[in-house]
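Exercise 3.2. Students should predict the tertiary structure of the chain below and write it as structure tokens, then compare their answer with the key that follows.

Predict this chain's 3D structure.
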Amino acid sequence: MKRNILILISVFFCTFIFAQQDSTQQKSPDSEIRTLLSSNYTIGGYGGINVKYGNVDGKYNWDFGFRAGAIFNHKVAVGLGVYGFVQEPKFDTSYNYDYGVQGGYAGLFFEPILLPKFPIHVSFPIFCGIGGASYVKKLDWKEKNHNWDDDDWNNDPDKIVKTEFIWVIEPGAEIELNVFKHFRVAFDVHYRFAPDVSLPNNKKDVLRNFSTGMTLKFGKF
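Answer key:
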């Protein structure tokens, strides 16, 4: 009998403690269950213009791009991006002219943002996309203005020697500055993973490189 009484007292005591804890938690908004559609969940968005510079096998590489996406709860951005790139032309003895690698790609990006409300914070975008890269003849504008017309260029069989399909995975890190409420500037570093390509007068890994750049972002953050 005493044993049963002790068990009942223990059960009552534990139930009382848990009830008190649950009551305290219910009074704290931070302890409530959070849902995707809660009233304090925010969705914003931004559009950004990006310029990056890199060096591949001793040749400069410029990337120009645009990305736009939605920002969820100030902390994660998801969206679309489009990029084009051009590398420094070099003289190709096989064609007796300057040639360089050019191309572009488009795809999706995912961007976690740490401490977004601080004036200076960081984000880690990762971009995945597909596109193409070509070995292209340099258009000499002086020569074009004096000796060429548009038909000469359009009908030149050697203007694009070869084009290859590519995929791109490009992780990066950005330091962002909240300049104004709807304007941010980011300074970034990226590495572009891409497949081996067989473009004339270039190494197979010509599309893989580090780059640094700047992004101007406009939107509701």
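Discussion points: The chain has one domain: 42-220. Residues 42-220 form a domain with the Porin fold (CATH 2.40.160.20).
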